[in-house]
Amino acid sequence: MLLMKRQLFFFLVLLLTVTAACVNQFETLLRSTDYELKFNKAIEFFEAGRYSRAQPLLEQLQMVYSGTTRDDTLQYYLGLSNYHLNDFVVAEDNFKRFVEIFPRSPFTKNARFLRLDCLYQNTYRYELDQQPSRIAIAAIEEFLYDYPGSEYEVVCRQMLADMYDRLDRKAFESARLYYTIEDYKAATHALKETLKDNPESSYREEILYYIVAANYQYADNSLPELQRERFLNVIDEYYNFISEYPDSQHRREVDNMFRKAQQYTTRNNN
């Protein structure tokens, strides 16, 4: 047991010594003016997956190799290092600048795609601000236009589908909020505006269902002298709904609303 403890102690001492030596060597490299060595070591670190070592070296070398034949390689690998370190804000800026400065570089297509991925990674869940999603969508659609049928098309379309769904859901949930707080007139207006803005919403069925439900609740809670006209609106919205979604999971519920609306309007025909 004592021997094992001693072995562990010596191992830890050796490990700390080696680590300290490596740190000292890297700090010496950072202070070095041997730019050729720095460049080669930066690429070596990158290819070994040691991005936290490659990144500061590449950052230091930007001014040294600016305007040279190595400039685009250095800038591209700097963006890649930040990308692999999950610093998507900085990486996006790296790739954006790269594309602006080197529009004909062999790395440009990849840099443009990686910038898209950075923009996508910096978007938020549907409840939050969706302006970053709109920026990412515009950039992705431009990329797909410039590179039709590229190897990145499937991934790009998956990103688009996800962000469009978030935009659709945010619009739907914002409109449905009026229904939740029982402002049924406002709910009807907001839901219809949502469909007007985006008729192809992925939440179209839910929106049409809530339009029926909001109209029903609005009619049911109205003064008697206003109910007949408002129940007629329920009937109209019901037919709109079932014409598009006859097999909806909401069918039984809207059928029940329809029957009650029909019964009321029949009883109060005059």
Tell me briefly what this model is.
Helices cover 77% and strands 0% of the residues. With 270 residues, the chain is mostly helical.
**N→C terminal distance:** 99 Å
Number of strands: 0
Rg, alpha carbons: 31 Å
Please give the share of residues in helix. Answer: over 70%
Instruction: Round the mean pLDDT to the nearest integer and report it.
Output: 91
Spans where pLDDT lies below 50 across 5 or more residues = 9-21
Largest sheet: none
Query: Would you tell me the structural class of the helices and strands?
Result: mainly alpha
Q: What overall form do the CA principal axes indicate?
A: rod-shaped
Task: Give the number of helices.
Answer: 12
The secondary-structure element order is HHHHHHHHHHHH
Description:
The chain starts with a helix and ends with a helix. The protein is mostly helical. α5 packs antiparallel against α6 and α8 packs antiparallel against α9. The radius of gyration is 31 Å and the shape is rod-shaped. The protein has twelve helices and no strands.
Layout of helices and strands, plus pairs?
Blueprint: H1 2-31, H2 35-47, H3 51-61, H4 71-84, H5 88-101, H6 108-121, H7 131-146, H8 153-180, H9 184-197, H10 204-220, H11 224-244, H12 251-267
Features:
270 residues, mainly alpha, rod-shaped
